[in-house]
């Protein structure tokens, strides 16, 4: 993991929207660094999708986030959706 990196954010988002996106990025980090409860992850993902409804924009942010952090939004979200309940982790 890269220690200090900047999140890909859109400065036109409101404070609440920024908080939702940051919360989701934090859940992705948790999935890779320890473990996260599926319900909490999917709730954060739904809030993220309220801010970023476009699949293209989600993919762009996912690529940018993965470039700076090494963590894949796509892989983490797919793992959470497959698990459906309980806890999951992508740690190595």
Automatic annotation (TrEMBL):
InterPro entries: BH2638-like_sf, UPF0223. Pfam families: UPF0223. SUPFAM superfamilies: BH2638-like. Belongs to the UPF0223 family. This is UPF0223 protein BTU61_01200.
């Amino acid at each position: 993991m890269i220690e200090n990196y900047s999140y890909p954010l859109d400065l036109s988002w409101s404070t609440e929207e920024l908080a939702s996106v940051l919360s989701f990025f934090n859940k992705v980090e948790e999935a890779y660094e320890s473990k996260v409860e599926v319900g909490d992850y999917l709730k954060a993902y739904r809030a993220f999708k309220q801010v970023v409804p476009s699949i293209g924009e989600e993919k762009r942010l996912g690529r940018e986030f993965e470039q700076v952090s090494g963590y894949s939004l796509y892989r983490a979200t797919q793992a959470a959706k497959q698990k459906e309940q309980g806890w999951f982790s992508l740690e190595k």
